[in-house]
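lol forgot to send this yesterday, sorry. struct tokens for the thing we talked abt
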């Protein structure tokens, strides 16, 4: 084992210290292509091409050290990249090093916790009133996300064959996303990918609230099972176009500039406020653990805090 400025090079991996680091990068990418979903691999490939290779392509493994990685981190931050993005890049550098048998300590930038967007109850009432009075496939999609917590890629991929109105269930089996086109000869830089959900836990059955089942039964007619939910046709709406539609609706109603994911946050928060069991909520959201649900999506409102605090009574 060699030690280079705090970096351990494990010779038992067959590592050639005079080899360029880029060889390990390409080898790791090939491995990732086999074991990862296309969306994940596309993200890895973009980060490698845009950030990692331009910095390290001519560096030999024996010359890789903590100072080089720290300088790389400082350069990324100086280029005004968000700390979360820089951390994502460094995580991949660390994975490549581990794959190559290089034990290196990488200092991660401190990531500021993003504020979670949740619709205020008055805003939610305004939005729901508009959706009820302006029935359309697209508007019903917003309504559905507000009461099931579907991700935007999931609602765009949803077809009527995945909705069982007799039993009041929807089945999440696919998602739509736009990824980088791996075909360098193509004029299209990105392509649409319709694929399975992000994880096994994202394959799920969600019971529909009774009022939505009734609304769908009474307002939607003459759709084929193979039609997409948001269009009632064989054509889908890609997420960025549906997001733009959602933004226009919110602006028209005078509601604050919420991202689409705010519908999911709002759903989770309202469920908890209503006494929803966290385990059941976790399964509906498609999380792998209750901990993720509680830490990432459950955000008690100030009114609920006041209500709970006022339950406290003096002992005498």
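and heres what i got for the seq, position by position
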């Amino acid at each position: 084992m060699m030690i280079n400025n705090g970096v351990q090079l494990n010779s038992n991996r067959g590592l050639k210290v005079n080899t360029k680091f880029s060889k390990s990068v390409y080898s790791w990418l090939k491995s990732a292509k086999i074991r990862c979903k296309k969306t994940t691999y596309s993200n890895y490939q973009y980060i490698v091409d845009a950030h990692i290779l331009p910095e390290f392509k001519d560096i030999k493994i024996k010359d890789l050290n903590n100072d080089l990685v720290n300088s790389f981190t400082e350069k990324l931050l100086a280029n005004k990249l968000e700390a979360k993005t820089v951390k994502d890049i460094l995580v991949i550098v660390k994975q490549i090093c581990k794959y190559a048998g290089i034990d290196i300590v990488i200092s991660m930038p401190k990531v500021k916790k993003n504020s979670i967007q949740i619709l205020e109850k008055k805003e939610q009432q305004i939005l729901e009133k508009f959706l009820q009075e302006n029935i359309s496939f697209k508007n019903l999609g917003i309504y559905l996300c507000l009461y099931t917590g579907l991700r935007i890629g999931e609602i765009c991929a949803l077809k009527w064959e995945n909705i069982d109105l007799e039993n009041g269930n929807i089945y999440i089996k696919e998602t739509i996303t736009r990824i980088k086109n791996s075909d360098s000869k193509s004029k299209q830089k990105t392509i649409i990918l319709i694929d399975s959900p992000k994880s096994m836990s994202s394959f799920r059955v969600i019971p529909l609230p009774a009022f939505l089942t009734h609304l769908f039964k009474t307002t939607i007619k003459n759709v084929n099972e193979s039609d997409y939910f948001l269009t009632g046709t064989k054509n889908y709406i890609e997420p960025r176009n549906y997001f733009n539609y959602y933004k226009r609706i919110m602006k028209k109603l005078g509601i604050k500039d919420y991202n689409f994911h705010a519908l999911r946050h709002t759903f989770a928060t309202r469920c908890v406020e209503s006494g929803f069991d966290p385990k059941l909520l976790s399964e509906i959201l498609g999380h792998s653990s209750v901990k993720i649900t509680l830490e990432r999506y459950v955000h008690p409102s100030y009114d609920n805090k006041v209500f709970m605090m006022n339950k406290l009574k003096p002992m005498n």
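Residues 171 and 205 are 5 Å apart (CA to CA). anyway ping me if u want another try
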